Amino acid sequence: MLVQLKSAAESVGKDIAQHIAAFAPLFVSRDQVPADEIAKERRLAEETARTEGKPEASIAKIVEGRVTGFVKEVSLLEQAFAKDAKKTVQQILDEAKTAVSAFNRFRVGQ
């Protein structure tokens, strides 16, 4: 696990590395999630809502909720922090006055 922080905050860096290992985010922030991934998730959420027979008037809200959930799942900064689920990773970094510039997650066999 490699985590690049904008300042030297070793204990926070270790906690963030452990979080990344456990929760496997794909991107640092929501801005880095490719538009085509979001569009694909949006289409899938809409198809699922229609298949489930949700009312037409509710589909847009359902789709937005599912897309928001997807983005939170794949974006490190928006995930609930592993050691304190009441806070996001972004809140933990703000408290430590640092930020994640990048990360690389490696698995055995890669």
From TrEMBL:
Residues 2-110 form the Translation elongation factor EFTs/EF1B dimerisation domain. Keywords: Elongation factor, Protein biosynthesis. Pfam families: EF_TS. InterPro entries: EF-Ts_dimer_sf, Transl_elong_EFTs/EF1B, Transl_elong_EFTs/EF1B_dimer. GO terms for molecular function: translation elongation factor activity. Belongs to the EF-Ts family. This is Unannotated protein.
